[in-house]
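2024-03-11 09:14:02 DEBUG pipeline.ingest accepted 1 chain
2024-03-11 09:14:02 DEBUG pipeline.ingest length=828
2024-03-11 09:14:03 DEBUG pipeline.predict start
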Amino acid sequence: GGLFNRETLDGDVERLTAYYRGLGFFRARVGREIDVRPDPFDSNREWVAVTFVIDEGPRYRIRNLAFFGNEKIPLEKLQEDLELKSGDYFDQNKLQLDMARLQDKYGAIGHVFADVEVDPRFLEEPGMLDLVYRIDEGRQYQVGRINVKIQGEFPHTRVTTVLNRMSLAPTDIVDTRELRASERRMRSSQIFEVDPTRGVQPKIVFSPPELTDPDTGRPGRRPVLAGEGHPRPQRPPDAAAPPETQRDGVVPTAGEETPSTAEPTIYRGQYGPAAGTSLPSPPSWMGRILPRRKSAEEANAAEEAVYDAPYQTADGAFYDAPPQTAEDAIRDAPPQTQEAMQVQGAARAAQPAVYTAPAGAGWSPRRPEAIPASAVAPIAPAAPATYAAAPAAGTAGSSGVVYPAGAIAPDPSGAVYAASPSGPVYPAQDTAAGPVPAQAAPIVFPDRPPPGQWDGYWSGGEPSAEPPLDLPLEPIVTETRTGRLLFSVGVNSDAGLLGTVLIEEQNFDIARLPRSWRDIADGVAWRGAGQRFRLEAVPGTEVQRYSISFADPYFLDRNVSLSVSGYYYRRDYREWNEERLGGRIGFGYQFTPDLSGTIAYRGADIKISDPIVTPFGTPQDLLDAVGTNLLHGFEVALTHDTRDNSFLPTEGHLFQVSFEQVVGTYDYPRAEIDLRKYFLLSQRPDGSGRHVLGVSTRFDVTGDDTPIYDHYFAGGYSSLRGFDFRGASPHEMGIPIGGHMMFLASAEYIFPITADDMIRGVIFCDTGTVERTVDSWDENYRVAPGFGLRVVIPAMGPAPIALDFAFPVSKEETDDEQVFSFFIGFLR
């Protein structure tokens, strides 16, 4: 039906040829025949019939796979998980996946610029070929300085808010898998904008740095941080300010007061707020249980002397790290008279110090960590002290004896020093290997590379031929709308008519107090640290809820989370009225960026009133709970969360297991397991339009003494669609009383309807049951398939509107059905 275009036709021929060759038909030939026919109804128009003539030829199979250039990764590791194997038909798409997997294997060990090329070699045997992978591994890279770039009209987010969500710190070997995981955590934080259709989402970019130092010509010099460009050995009292001094990640505008240029406080391996605006130090007890992140100075110390990693003697004194060579010792030592040298030497000989040797795998100037105290070298006072004589013959030592050039002789005074080539006498440097003689060979420390080999990074084992190069990383994020001031009236199929007054900030900062009214007007005050604050008042016909909550996922920029909340809740059920006044406090610890443990306490005063009276009476469980009840719950939980979004996840999983012991008016235990997995089936090239399959299961059980207000109930959007709120639960005397066990399982397929992903369709099937005991869980199993919509309105925040229709196909006679459910807020 379209207009004939010969260039378009030639392009179609090329596309067909590429398609066949991509499937292994390397000898495929595509031709075309053109037949021009007149239009019987219009003499001014002609029709063209195009016939593609295809000779497919043989489809090639793979005989062997060969790898060349791999030294860091053995052959068997490279062949793992490859799609194409010996005997398979050639497939270009699978080959591209295999090449990406090979690059990921190298990216996981720091070879981020490894080049993988494939050379298909055709054999004399028809239809067979060999695939030869040529690998240029390149250099290994470690993380250099992390330069965070926060975009937006008026950026206010702290740099540490981004760094907290990164699983790599300076001096870590670069791992491309961890870089992608860090990007995922930034996307799921709800702090930064994620819009694949516009290409706006958190990303970490990097490029190969210069491979030579412009000053020394040595390979792989790290970027110099502010305050480090100074001569050895003294450190200047005030570090130089960076080109654009930032306060909490914000570049001051013209006319604004410039913050202090003193070296800022270090948080999680990077520079944090400027001096005078830093966060408070954590309590002393926390330092004993929290791992300390390497500081920027520790992380970036390279071939220069290690100023901040002193060695400790047996008597508790600290000494600077020994220099690398005798030339360093002579240059760095201040000149002194021979008399002063003899006095110092005699005192030192009288109380010989025992110095800790820099021994043991893992010691490195780049990573000045705790040095084991097992390898020590005592300087015995009985041993004759050694001196290096001056290079010129006829120069007198401290005892007045004239030694020939190059001679080494003991001194009766016991002093330890070295003669200077230029005349003045310098003190010798005490090291694990003893005094440093002048113009001697470089000191050889235990467990260090031999002299002449590179000694910048040493982790034990065989010495590396080349050190890892520093790779600067640049996380780029764009701030999104994180605050809401909401006044609304709505309806919920589970809770009736509701009014809402809400103040919420997903990027809260409790420590950033306003300095002026302008900070409040510009939205800078109380924002930027990635904390969450929520103040909510919800009056309604069936439910009233008033709550305040605060959560910090990285408390004091540590791997600790803190959450505090308080609430008043009232709900008028058909069977009774319930009031709760209580709160919760929880502490979490991140074992890894995705694995965390939590300990929490919840307390509540619960009042049950107006129990229903049926013609059959009132259930005893309800009568027992009438009145005021005290609840104190102590919970421990373990969570592994890799979801890319907590509201509409498209990939990853959530696994959570918890146990709680409740005491008070009633004593009972509770255990809960929640597992959710999301599979990304397909997406557009820009990352939008995602088709997602989600499966979930939940199993909860509570003790026999659990009161009715803490029973499990099913039914409604948040548990089992197709049933009314609490409508799929055990009944007694016609009243739902819940159960001591709940099992739910669900499968859900979500697909885009609009190009901007604001409207998505969903097909699902919910199953599950609630029973009084675990033994009878399969007796009353419910099943309800259905379909619905998910609507995202940016002005209302990231939580979608859910419209679902479900149709129970397996149910109990006492169940209350509800085909349509409507929900605004958090996902199930």
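2024-03-11 09:14:41 DEBUG pipeline.report Residues 212-464 have pLDDT under 50 and may be disordered.
2024-03-11 09:14:41 DEBUG pipeline.predict end
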